[in-house]
Write a structure and sequence with these properties.
A hairpin with a 5-residue loop joins strand 2 and strand 3. This protein has one domain: Arc Repressor Mutant, subunit A, CATH 1.10.10. The chain has five helices and three strands; from the N terminus they run H-H-E-H-H-E-E-H. A three-stranded antiparallel sheet has the order 1-3-2. By secondary structure, the protein is α+β, with helices and mostly antiparallel strands. Helices cover about 45% and strands about 15% of the residues.
């Protein structure tokens, strides 16, 4: 994913997903490679349920991907890793994204 490939609304959702310290820490932790949810929660010092909320937000906009595997003892394990993305924000990219916003009313809510 690249900024130029996103509609204005998709860019807004992506930036909103990144506008949280926990989610930025998740991205940083996954930069080292894929991780199991419990392992990631321990590393970040947050509960698994809270981590799942943040992971779902990041997954919804394509910044992370999830895969499920079955462990040797039969437990379902969910692993997360970074998706492929490059977000270079330039005035030109922002202007192009703004032109494609669904709500083109100044001061409108989204």
């Amino acid at each position: 994913m690249r900024v130029g490939d996103l509609s204005g609304d998709e860019l807004v959702r992506t930036l909103a997903a990144l506008a949280n310290p926990h989610r930025l820490r998740v991205i940083a932790a996954l930069f080292a490679g894929r991780q199991y949810v419990s392992e990631l929660a321990r590393e970040l010092g947050i509960s698994r349920p809270l981590l799942q909320v943040h992971l779902r937000k990041l997954e919804a906009v394509g910044l992370v991907t999830a895969t499920s595997e079955i462990s040797k003892d039969g437990r379902a394990m969910k692993f997360y890793e970074l998706g492929t993305f490059e977000l270079e924000l330039t005035p030109a990219a922002l202007a192009a994204a703004a032109a494609s916003l669904a709500d083109d009313e100044p001061g409108g809510s989204s």
